[in-house]
Amino acid sequence: MPHKTFNLDEVAHYLHLTVEEVQNYVRERVIPFEERGGRLTFKRSEIDSWASRRILGASEKRLKSYHRQSTERMLDLSKEHAIMPDLLRAEFIEAALKSRTKASVIRDMAALADSTGMVNDAADLVKSLEERERLCTTALPGGVALLHPMTHDAYRFNDSFIVLGRAVQPLPFGSPDGSTTDLFFLVGCQNDRLHLHVLARICMMCHHTDLLMKLREVAAAPALFAALLAAEQEVIRQL
Description:
Blueprint: E1 5-6, H1 8-15, H2 19-28, E2 34-36, E3 39-43, H3 44-56, H4 60-74, H5 84-87, E4 93-97, H6 102-114, H7 122-135, E5 139-140, E6 144-147, E7 161-171, E8 181-188, H8 192-207, H9 211-217, H10 221-238
Parallel strand pairs: 4-7, 6-8
Antiparallel strand pairs: 1-3, 2-3, 5-6, 7-8
Helix pairs in contact: 1-2, 3-8, 4-8, 6-7, 8-10
């Protein structure tokens, strides 16, 4: 794995944060770090896990702030900067996922991802998704989960993508509010900085638009896809 550790400047760039923000996190000891010879170092694997957990559990104010920062650093704000059309297609959506358990959701979502032709090793993806869920659930309040691998290595995928599965029957997936989950995104990104931005964008779409309601109302994959595109445009207007 290239770049197993980051220095201060590198981790700030990776996380879409300023150096000062990272230094504050270090002082508060809320970010994993090591001090070697008076220099700060950050293990990539630990930073990956820390960053995704903070995005998924962010307050409304912090999520909005982080989403704007990641948008500014990843994309040209003079453009429309929609990312859903590049990563998701109607054929990447399963509107009637028959999974009944958390384990079967992971397997079925990995199979859906594999059907895109962008996954190099479906069994490896399943293993990494399971490791991520053991670390901390990716389920959010509202009946949605944002599955993603434990680590974000370029070799795992041929290109970046998002797939979406809607379960026929909601099921327990570890949501912090104890509710069941029926909507499952799986995010696969070659570019790890893009991965963090995509997580923030989907969280914004789920919690700052009526997307979740729309995804449960419409019937077929093309209509679900259209609802996702409309929700992203609404989020972009909020920037």
